[in-house]
Design a protein that fits this description.
Layout lengths: L1 H12 L7 H17 L4 H17 L8 H16 L15 E6 L6 H15 L5 E5 L5 H14 L2 E3 L7 H14 L4 E5 L8 H14 L3 E7 L4 H13 L4 E5 L8 H10 L3 E5 L7 E3 L2 H8 L5 H11 L2 H12 L6 H13 L3 H6 L4 H5 L7 H14 L3 H5 L6 H11 L3 H20 L2 H12 L1
Parallel strand pairs: 1-4, 1-5, 2-3, 2-4, 5-6, 6-7
Antiparallel strand pairs: 7-8
Helix pairs in contact: 1-2, 1-4, 2-3, 3-4, 4-11, 5-6, 7-8, 9-10, 12-14, 13-21, 14-17, 17-19, 19-20
The chain binds guanosine-5'-diphosphate and magnesium ion.
Main location: cytoplasm
InterPro entries: AAA+_ATPase, P-loop_NTPase, Signal_recog_part_SRP54_M_sf, Signal_recog_particl_SRP54_hlx, Signal_recog_particle_SRP54_M, SRP, SRP54, SRP54_GTPase_dom
Catalytic activity: GTP + H2O = GDP + phosphate + H(+)
Protein backbone atom coordinates (compact mmCIF):
# COMPACT_ATOMS: atom_id res chain seq x y z
CA UNK A 1 0.00 0.00 0.00
CA UNK A 2 0.85 3.61 -0.45
CA UNK A 3 1.83 4.18 3.13
CA UNK A 4 4.20 1.24 3.30
CA UNK A 5 5.80 2.11 -0.02
CA UNK A 6 6.42 5.65 0.97
CA UNK A 7 7.97 4.63 4.22
CA UNK A 8 10.33 2.37 2.27
CA UNK A 9 11.12 5.23 -0.08
CA UNK A 10 12.00 7.47 2.77
CA UNK A 11 14.10 4.82 4.42
CA UNK A 12 16.17 4.57 1.25
CA UNK A 13 16.79 8.28 1.05
CA UNK A 14 17.68 8.60 4.70
CA UNK A 15 21.34 9.21 5.29
CA UNK A 16 21.98 10.90 1.94
CA UNK A 17 23.35 14.39 2.10
CA UNK A 18 21.09 15.99 -0.47
CA UNK A 19 18.49 15.22 -3.09
CA UNK A 20 19.98 14.58 -6.52
CA UNK A 21 18.72 13.16 -9.81
CA UNK A 22 20.47 9.96 -8.91
CA UNK A 23 19.26 9.33 -5.42
CA UNK A 24 15.67 10.33 -6.01
CA UNK A 25 15.32 8.16 -9.10
CA UNK A 26 14.53 5.12 -7.00
CA UNK A 27 12.27 7.12 -4.73
CA UNK A 28 10.32 8.52 -7.67
CA UNK A 29 9.92 5.06 -9.12
CA UNK A 30 8.45 3.91 -5.84
CA UNK A 31 6.10 6.86 -5.71
CA UNK A 32 4.95 6.04 -9.23
CA UNK A 33 4.37 2.39 -8.40
CA UNK A 34 2.64 3.25 -5.19
CA UNK A 35 0.21 5.58 -6.93
CA UNK A 36 -0.49 3.02 -9.63
CA UNK A 37 -1.09 0.40 -7.00
CA UNK A 38 -3.46 2.76 -5.25
CA UNK A 39 -5.40 2.85 -8.52
CA UNK A 40 -4.59 6.39 -9.46
CA UNK A 41 -5.09 6.90 -13.19
CA UNK A 42 -1.90 6.75 -15.26
CA UNK A 43 -1.83 10.31 -16.68
CA UNK A 44 -2.31 11.65 -13.18
CA UNK A 45 0.50 9.51 -11.84
CA UNK A 46 2.82 10.80 -14.56
CA UNK A 47 1.94 14.41 -13.84
CA UNK A 48 2.40 13.90 -10.17
CA UNK A 49 5.78 12.23 -10.43
CA UNK A 50 7.03 14.97 -12.74
CA UNK A 51 5.87 17.63 -10.35
CA UNK A 52 7.58 15.98 -7.43
CA UNK A 53 10.78 15.56 -9.41
CA UNK A 54 10.89 19.19 -10.50
CA UNK A 55 10.35 20.43 -7.02
CA UNK A 56 12.77 18.02 -5.42
CA UNK A 57 15.65 18.86 -7.73
CA UNK A 58 15.28 22.60 -7.58
CA UNK A 59 14.78 22.71 -3.88
CA UNK A 60 17.28 23.96 -1.37
CA UNK A 61 16.20 22.68 1.94
CA UNK A 62 16.94 24.09 5.33
CA UNK A 63 19.75 22.63 7.44
CA UNK A 64 17.22 21.33 9.85
CA UNK A 65 15.73 18.98 7.30
CA UNK A 66 17.25 15.69 6.31
CA UNK A 67 16.79 14.73 2.63
CA UNK A 68 14.05 12.28 3.43
CA UNK A 69 12.16 14.86 5.44
CA UNK A 70 12.52 17.31 2.60
CA UNK A 71 11.31 14.75 0.08
CA UNK A 72 8.44 13.82 2.33
CA UNK A 73 7.45 17.49 2.50
CA UNK A 74 7.55 17.82 -1.25
CA UNK A 75 5.41 14.74 -1.85
CA UNK A 76 2.99 15.90 0.80
CA UNK A 77 2.70 19.36 -0.71
CA UNK A 78 2.16 18.00 -4.19
CA UNK A 79 -0.51 15.63 -2.93
CA UNK A 80 -2.35 18.46 -1.25
CA UNK A 81 -2.27 20.56 -4.39
CA UNK A 82 -3.47 17.69 -6.51
CA UNK A 83 -6.44 17.21 -4.25
CA UNK A 84 -7.45 20.81 -4.41
CA UNK A 85 -5.68 22.76 -1.71
CA UNK A 86 -8.51 24.03 0.41
CA UNK A 87 -11.75 22.65 1.72
CA UNK A 88 -14.66 23.69 -0.43
CA UNK A 89 -17.99 24.26 1.27
CA UNK A 90 -21.50 23.39 0.25
CA UNK A 91 -23.09 26.13 -1.81
CA UNK A 92 -26.60 26.89 -0.61
CA UNK A 93 -26.86 30.40 -1.99
CA UNK A 94 -29.96 29.92 -4.11
CA UNK A 95 -33.54 31.10 -4.12
CA UNK A 96 -35.11 28.66 -1.68
CA UNK A 97 -35.29 25.79 -1.78
CA UNK A 98 -31.58 25.32 -2.40
CA UNK A 99 -31.82 22.02 -4.23
CA UNK A 100 -29.20 19.33 -3.89
CA UNK A 101 -29.16 16.44 -6.35
CA UNK A 102 -27.33 13.24 -5.51
CA UNK A 103 -25.79 11.21 -8.30
CA UNK A 104 -23.79 8.00 -8.33
CA UNK A 105 -23.84 4.25 -8.71
CA UNK A 106 -25.95 1.94 -6.59
CA UNK A 107 -24.33 1.27 -3.24
CA UNK A 108 -22.11 4.35 -3.46
CA UNK A 109 -23.76 5.76 -0.36
CA UNK A 110 -26.16 8.36 -1.79
CA UNK A 111 -29.09 7.67 0.49
CA UNK A 112 -26.96 7.37 3.60
CA UNK A 113 -25.18 10.59 2.66
CA UNK A 114 -28.47 12.48 2.28
CA UNK A 115 -29.19 11.58 5.91
CA UNK A 116 -25.69 12.54 7.05
CA UNK A 117 -25.73 15.79 5.13
CA UNK A 118 -29.09 16.75 6.65
CA UNK A 119 -27.63 16.20 10.07
CA UNK A 120 -24.49 18.12 9.19
CA UNK A 121 -26.52 21.13 8.03
CA UNK A 122 -28.87 20.99 11.02
CA UNK A 123 -25.93 20.83 13.41
CA UNK A 124 -24.66 24.08 11.92
CA UNK A 125 -28.04 25.79 11.87
CA UNK A 126 -30.95 24.24 13.70
CA UNK A 127 -33.44 26.55 12.02
CA UNK A 128 -32.82 25.29 8.51
CA UNK A 129 -35.93 23.67 7.08
CA UNK A 130 -34.94 20.60 5.12
CA UNK A 131 -37.06 18.36 2.90
CA UNK A 132 -35.93 14.97 1.58
CA UNK A 133 -37.32 13.11 -1.38
CA UNK A 134 -36.44 9.84 -3.05
CA UNK A 135 -36.66 9.45 -6.81
CA UNK A 136 -35.45 5.86 -6.57
CA UNK A 137 -38.52 4.12 -7.93
CA UNK A 138 -36.84 0.81 -8.66
CA UNK A 139 -36.61 -0.41 -5.10
CA UNK A 140 -39.41 0.35 -2.60
CA UNK A 141 -36.89 -0.35 0.14
CA UNK A 142 -34.81 2.60 -1.05
CA UNK A 143 -37.69 5.02 -0.47
CA UNK A 144 -38.34 3.51 2.96
CA UNK A 145 -34.63 3.80 3.80
CA UNK A 146 -34.71 7.54 3.17
CA UNK A 147 -37.93 7.94 5.14
CA UNK A 148 -36.33 6.30 8.16
CA UNK A 149 -33.26 8.50 7.86
CA UNK A 150 -35.48 11.59 7.71
CA UNK A 151 -37.16 10.49 10.93
CA UNK A 152 -33.83 9.82 12.55
CA UNK A 153 -32.42 13.29 11.85
CA UNK A 154 -35.81 14.94 12.25
CA UNK A 155 -36.20 16.54 8.88
CA UNK A 156 -39.26 16.33 6.66
CA UNK A 157 -39.87 13.66 4.09
CA UNK A 158 -41.81 14.05 0.87
CA UNK A 159 -43.48 10.71 0.09
CA UNK A 160 -43.08 9.05 -3.27
CA UNK A 161 -43.85 5.60 -4.63
CA UNK A 162 -42.67 3.20 -7.27
CA UNK A 163 -45.54 3.91 -9.65
CA UNK A 164 -44.37 7.48 -10.22
CA UNK A 165 -41.84 8.86 -12.67
CA UNK A 166 -38.57 10.14 -11.13
CA UNK A 167 -38.76 13.55 -12.84
CA UNK A 168 -42.34 14.06 -11.66
CA UNK A 169 -41.44 13.13 -8.11
CA UNK A 170 -38.54 15.59 -8.06
CA UNK A 171 -40.66 18.39 -9.52
CA UNK A 172 -43.56 17.77 -7.15
CA UNK A 173 -41.20 17.83 -4.18
CA UNK A 174 -39.61 21.05 -5.37
CA UNK A 175 -43.00 22.64 -5.84
CA UNK A 176 -44.05 21.56 -2.37
CA UNK A 177 -40.80 22.84 -0.89
CA UNK A 178 -41.30 26.23 -2.53
CA UNK A 179 -44.85 26.56 -1.26
CA UNK A 180 -43.89 25.54 2.25
CA UNK A 181 -40.78 27.68 2.49
CA UNK A 182 -38.15 25.00 2.82
CA UNK A 183 -34.56 26.22 2.78
CA UNK A 184 -33.17 23.02 1.34
CA UNK A 185 -34.47 20.17 -0.78
CA UNK A 186 -32.35 17.06 -1.20
CA UNK A 187 -33.19 14.75 -4.06
CA UNK A 188 -31.96 11.19 -3.73
CA UNK A 189 -31.79 9.19 -6.94
CA UNK A 190 -31.47 5.62 -8.12
CA UNK A 191 -28.18 4.16 -9.19
CA UNK A 192 -27.26 1.09 -11.19
CA UNK A 193 -24.53 -1.39 -10.56
CA UNK A 194 -22.69 -0.15 -13.61
CA UNK A 195 -22.87 2.95 -15.73
CA UNK A 196 -25.80 2.62 -18.11
CA UNK A 197 -27.42 4.93 -20.56
CA UNK A 198 -30.92 4.73 -19.19
CA UNK A 199 -29.75 5.77 -15.74
CA UNK A 200 -27.71 8.64 -17.17
CA UNK A 201 -30.64 9.87 -19.21
CA UNK A 202 -32.90 9.71 -16.19
CA UNK A 203 -30.64 11.74 -13.95
CA UNK A 204 -29.95 14.21 -16.74
CA UNK A 205 -33.71 14.72 -17.07
CA UNK A 206 -34.09 15.24 -13.33
CA UNK A 207 -31.24 17.72 -13.39
CA UNK A 208 -32.74 19.66 -16.26
CA UNK A 209 -36.12 19.79 -14.53
CA UNK A 210 -35.12 20.93 -11.06
CA UNK A 211 -31.90 22.86 -11.82
CA UNK A 212 -30.12 22.08 -8.56
CA UNK A 213 -27.54 24.47 -7.10
CA UNK A 214 -25.48 21.47 -6.00
CA UNK A 215 -25.10 18.31 -8.05
CA UNK A 216 -23.05 16.02 -5.90
CA UNK A 217 -21.37 12.95 -7.27
CA UNK A 218 -21.21 10.30 -4.57
CA UNK A 219 -18.50 7.71 -5.06
CA UNK A 220 -17.20 4.78 -3.07
CA UNK A 221 -13.52 5.28 -2.28
CA UNK A 222 -13.02 1.53 -2.21
CA UNK A 223 -13.72 1.33 -5.95
CA UNK A 224 -10.19 2.29 -6.87
CA UNK A 225 -9.64 2.55 -10.61
CA UNK A 226 -13.36 2.07 -11.26
CA UNK A 227 -14.00 5.24 -9.31
CA UNK A 228 -12.16 7.04 -12.08
CA UNK A 229 -14.29 5.58 -14.86
CA UNK A 230 -17.50 6.30 -12.99
CA UNK A 231 -16.39 9.83 -12.20
CA UNK A 232 -15.62 10.43 -15.84
CA UNK A 233 -19.02 9.18 -16.99
CA UNK A 234 -20.98 11.23 -14.47
CA UNK A 235 -18.85 14.29 -15.07
CA UNK A 236 -19.60 14.13 -18.78
CA UNK A 237 -23.32 13.58 -18.24
CA UNK A 238 -23.90 16.23 -15.59
CA UNK A 239 -22.50 19.60 -14.60
CA UNK A 240 -21.25 18.32 -11.24
CA UNK A 241 -20.56 20.87 -8.53
CA UNK A 242 -18.79 18.60 -6.10
CA UNK A 243 -17.84 15.13 -5.04
CA UNK A 244 -18.50 13.13 -1.89
CA UNK A 245 -16.09 10.30 -1.33
CA UNK A 246 -17.65 7.63 0.86
CA UNK A 247 -16.27 4.70 2.84
CA UNK A 248 -13.02 6.41 3.63
CA UNK A 249 -13.19 4.60 6.95
CA UNK A 250 -12.49 1.26 5.26
CA UNK A 251 -9.12 0.40 3.86
CA UNK A 252 -9.66 2.55 0.82
CA UNK A 253 -6.30 3.28 -0.70
CA UNK A 254 -6.78 7.00 -1.02
CA UNK A 255 -6.07 6.81 -4.72
CA UNK A 256 -9.69 7.64 -5.45
CA UNK A 257 -9.36 11.00 -3.75
CA UNK A 258 -6.41 11.85 -5.96
CA UNK A 259 -7.85 10.87 -9.27
CA UNK A 260 -11.52 11.72 -8.88
CA UNK A 261 -10.53 15.28 -8.15
CA UNK A 262 -8.19 15.38 -11.13
CA UNK A 263 -10.61 13.70 -13.55
CA UNK A 264 -13.63 15.81 -12.69
CA UNK A 265 -11.83 19.02 -11.77
CA UNK A 266 -14.55 19.34 -9.13
CA UNK A 267 -13.85 19.77 -5.44
CA UNK A 268 -14.32 16.90 -3.04
CA UNK A 269 -16.62 18.49 -0.49
CA UNK A 270 -17.11 15.74 2.06
CA UNK A 271 -15.86 12.31 2.94
CA UNK A 272 -17.93 9.51 4.42
CA UNK A 273 -16.20 7.94 7.37
CA UNK A 274 -18.71 5.44 8.70
CA UNK A 275 -22.15 3.99 8.40
CA UNK A 276 -23.51 6.02 11.26
CA UNK A 277 -25.40 9.24 10.74
CA UNK A 278 -22.48 11.35 11.99
CA UNK A 279 -19.99 9.62 9.70
CA UNK A 280 -19.44 12.61 7.45
CA UNK A 281 -16.58 15.10 7.51
CA UNK A 282 -15.72 18.11 5.39
CA UNK A 283 -12.90 17.16 3.06
CA UNK A 284 -9.54 18.58 4.00
CA UNK A 285 -6.89 17.76 1.40
CA UNK A 286 -4.02 18.22 3.82
CA UNK A 287 -5.56 15.73 6.18
CA UNK A 288 -6.11 13.13 3.50
CA UNK A 289 -2.56 13.67 2.30
CA UNK A 290 -1.22 12.92 5.74
CA UNK A 291 -3.51 9.93 5.94
CA UNK A 292 -2.17 8.68 2.64
CA UNK A 293 1.35 9.27 3.85
CA UNK A 294 0.62 7.23 6.95
CA UNK A 295 0.76 9.98 9.51
CA UNK A 296 -2.74 9.27 10.76
CA UNK A 297 -4.75 12.42 10.92
CA UNK A 298 -1.94 14.10 12.75
CA UNK A 299 -2.70 17.58 11.49
CA UNK A 300 -6.25 17.51 12.76
CA UNK A 301 -5.07 16.04 15.98
CA UNK A 302 -2.52 18.78 16.44
CA UNK A 303 -5.10 21.43 15.64
CA UNK A 304 -7.47 20.00 18.21
CA UNK A 305 -4.73 19.84 20.79
CA UNK A 306 -3.72 23.41 20.07
CA UNK A 307 -7.27 24.60 20.42
CA UNK A 308 -7.80 22.89 23.71
CA UNK A 309 -4.54 23.04 25.51
CA UNK A 310 -4.10 25.57 28.20
CA UNK A 311 -0.40 26.04 28.04
CA UNK A 312 0.01 27.26 31.59
CA UNK A 313 -1.86 24.34 33.08
CA UNK A 314 -0.01 21.85 30.94
CA UNK A 315 3.34 23.35 31.88
CA UNK A 316 2.47 23.32 35.53
CA UNK A 317 1.35 19.73 35.31
CA UNK A 318 4.50 18.74 33.48
CA UNK A 319 6.65 20.34 36.17
CA UNK A 320 4.67 18.70 38.89
CA UNK A 321 5.08 15.32 37.31
CA UNK A 322 8.71 16.02 36.67
CA UNK A 323 9.25 16.68 40.35
CA UNK A 324 7.45 13.42 41.05
CA UNK A 325 4.68 15.21 42.88
CA UNK A 326 1.35 13.49 43.00
CA UNK A 327 -1.25 14.17 40.43
CA UNK A 328 -4.39 15.20 42.34
CA UNK A 329 -8.08 15.62 41.66
CA UNK A 330 -7.63 19.25 40.65
CA UNK A 331 -5.34 18.05 37.89
CA UNK A 332 -7.82 15.35 36.99
CA UNK A 333 -10.54 17.93 36.63
CA UNK A 334 -8.31 20.22 34.56
CA UNK A 335 -7.56 17.28 32.28
CA UNK A 336 -11.22 16.59 31.70
CA UNK A 337 -11.76 20.23 30.85
CA UNK A 338 -8.89 20.20 28.38
CA UNK A 339 -10.12 17.01 26.82
CA UNK A 340 -13.48 18.65 26.27
CA UNK A 341 -11.88 21.73 24.71
CA UNK A 342 -10.14 19.43 22.28
CA UNK A 343 -13.43 18.05 21.05
CA UNK A 344 -13.72 15.16 23.46
CA UNK A 345 -11.92 11.95 24.05
CA UNK A 346 -13.61 10.02 21.23
CA UNK A 347 -12.77 12.72 18.74
CA UNK A 348 -9.09 12.71 19.71
CA UNK A 349 -8.93 8.95 19.68
CA UNK A 350 -10.52 8.71 16.25
CA UNK A 351 -7.73 10.81 14.79
CA UNK A 352 -4.86 8.77 16.10
CA UNK A 353 -2.91 6.84 13.48
CA UNK A 354 -3.51 3.14 12.96
CA UNK A 355 -5.06 0.75 15.43
CA UNK A 356 -5.68 3.38 18.05
CA UNK A 357 -7.93 5.30 15.68
CA UNK A 358 -9.97 2.17 14.98
CA UNK A 359 -10.79 1.69 18.66
CA UNK A 360 -12.91 4.83 18.71
CA UNK A 361 -15.40 3.21 16.34
CA UNK A 362 -16.23 0.58 18.91
CA UNK A 363 -17.24 3.06 21.56
CA UNK A 364 -20.94 3.99 21.47
CA UNK A 365 -21.36 7.66 20.70
CA UNK A 366 -21.33 10.03 23.66
CA UNK A 367 -20.27 7.41 26.20
CA UNK A 368 -17.05 9.13 27.14
CA UNK A 369 -18.66 12.55 27.23
CA UNK A 370 -21.35 11.39 29.64
CA UNK A 371 -18.85 9.65 31.85
CA UNK A 372 -16.70 12.77 31.99
CA UNK A 373 -19.61 14.99 32.97
CA UNK A 374 -20.44 12.56 35.74
CA UNK A 375 -16.91 12.56 37.09
CA UNK A 376 -16.81 16.32 36.94
CA UNK A 377 -20.00 16.63 38.97
CA UNK A 378 -18.49 14.47 41.69
CA UNK A 379 -15.25 16.44 41.81
CA UNK A 380 -17.25 19.67 41.95
CA UNK A 381 -18.89 18.47 45.15
CA UNK A 382 -15.55 18.09 46.90
CA UNK A 383 -13.82 20.71 49.00
CA UNK A 384 -10.48 22.06 47.73
CA UNK A 385 -8.79 20.18 50.54
CA UNK A 386 -10.32 16.91 49.44
CA UNK A 387 -9.32 17.53 45.84
CA UNK A 388 -5.72 18.11 46.84
CA UNK A 389 -5.65 15.15 49.24
CA UNK A 390 -7.96 12.44 47.92
CA UNK A 391 -6.68 10.12 50.67
CA UNK A 392 -8.76 11.91 53.30
CA UNK A 393 -12.00 11.03 51.51
CA UNK A 394 -13.47 8.44 53.86
CA UNK A 395 -17.03 7.20 54.41
CA UNK A 396 -18.70 10.32 55.80
CA UNK A 397 -17.09 12.59 53.23
CA UNK A 398 -18.12 10.19 50.48
CA UNK A 399 -21.71 10.36 51.65
CA UNK A 400 -21.66 14.16 51.58
CA UNK A 401 -20.01 14.26 48.15
CA UNK A 402 -22.48 11.74 46.70
CA UNK A 403 -25.42 13.77 48.01
CA UNK A 404 -23.94 16.97 46.58
CA UNK A 405 -23.43 15.42 43.15
CA UNK A 406 -26.83 13.74 43.18
CA UNK A 407 -25.33 10.29 42.99
CA UNK A 408 -24.50 7.27 45.16
CA UNK A 409 -21.50 6.41 47.32
CA UNK A 410 -20.78 3.50 44.96
CA UNK A 411 -20.42 5.96 42.10
CA UNK A 412 -18.06 8.11 44.16
CA UNK A 413 -15.99 5.01 44.90
CA UNK A 414 -15.95 4.10 41.24
CA UNK A 415 -14.79 7.57 40.31
CA UNK A 416 -12.04 7.53 42.94
CA UNK A 417 -10.89 4.20 41.58
CA UNK A 418 -10.73 5.65 38.06
CA UNK A 419 -8.79 8.56 39.41
CA UNK A 420 -6.28 6.24 41.04
CA UNK A 421 -5.78 4.47 37.75
CA UNK A 422 -5.13 7.65 35.87
CA UNK A 423 -2.85 8.79 38.68
CA UNK A 424 -0.77 5.73 38.04
CA UNK A 425 -0.83 6.35 34.34
CA UNK A 426 0.28 9.94 34.83
CA UNK A 427 3.22 8.77 36.87
CA UNK A 428 4.41 6.85 33.89
CA UNK A 429 4.53 10.03 31.87
CA UNK A 430 7.87 11.58 32.51
CA UNK A 431 8.30 15.32 32.30
CA UNK A 432 10.22 14.77 29.11
CA UNK A 433 7.30 13.09 27.35
CA UNK A 434 5.03 15.91 28.33
CA UNK A 435 7.42 18.47 26.93
CA UNK A 436 7.63 16.54 23.70
CA UNK A 437 3.86 16.61 23.41
CA UNK A 438 3.84 20.32 24.06
CA UNK A 439 6.37 20.93 21.32
CA UNK A 440 4.29 18.86 18.93
CA UNK A 441 1.19 20.79 19.87
CA UNK A 442 2.88 24.06 19.08
CA UNK A 443 3.91 22.68 15.69
P1 LIG B 1 -26.93 4.19 -2.41
O1 LIG B 1 -27.33 2.97 -3.16
O2 LIG B 1 -25.96 5.02 -3.19
O3 LIG B 1 -28.09 5.00 -1.92
O4 LIG B 1 -26.11 3.67 -1.13
P2 LIG B 1 -26.57 3.56 0.38
O5 LIG B 1 -26.68 4.92 0.98
O6 LIG B 1 -27.77 2.70 0.51
O7 LIG B 1 -25.30 2.87 1.02
C1 LIG B 1 -24.85 1.58 0.66
C2 LIG B 1 -24.11 0.95 1.81
O8 LIG B 1 -22.91 1.66 2.08
C3 LIG B 1 -24.90 0.99 3.10
O9 LIG B 1 -24.74 -0.24 3.77
C4 LIG B 1 -24.27 2.11 3.89
O10 LIG B 1 -24.40 1.92 5.27
C5 LIG B 1 -22.85 2.02 3.43
N1 LIG B 1 -22.13 3.32 3.54
C6 LIG B 1 -22.44 4.49 3.01
N2 LIG B 1 -21.52 5.43 3.30
C7 LIG B 1 -20.58 4.83 4.06
C8 LIG B 1 -19.37 5.25 4.67
O11 LIG B 1 -18.91 6.40 4.58
N3 LIG B 1 -18.67 4.32 5.38
C9 LIG B 1 -19.12 3.02 5.48
N4 LIG B 1 -18.39 2.18 6.18
N5 LIG B 1 -20.24 2.60 4.92
C10 LIG B 1 -20.98 3.46 4.21
MG1 LIG C 1 -30.08 4.73 -2.31
Amino acid sequence: NLTKRFSKVFKDIRGQSKLSEDNIKEALREVRLALLEADVALPIVKDFVNQVKERALGKEFADTLTPDQAFFGIVNEALIELMGKENSQLNLAATPPATILMAGLQGAGKTTTVGKLSKFIKDQDKKKKILLVSADVYRPAAIEQLKLLAEQVQVDFFPSDVSQKPVEIALAAQDYAKKHFYDILMVDTAGRLAIDEEMMNEIKAIHAAIKPIETLFVVDAMLGQDAVNTAQAFNEALPLTGVILTKMDGDARGGAALSVRQITGKPIKFIGVGEKINGLEPFHPERIASRILGMGDVMTLIEDVQKGIDEEIAKEMAQKLHRGKDFDLNDFKAQIQQMRNMGGFENLLSKMPGELGQISKQIPEGTAEKAMAHVEAIINSMTPKERANPDIIKASRKKRIAAGAGTTVQEVNKMLKQFEQSQQMMKMFSGKNMQKLMRMAKG
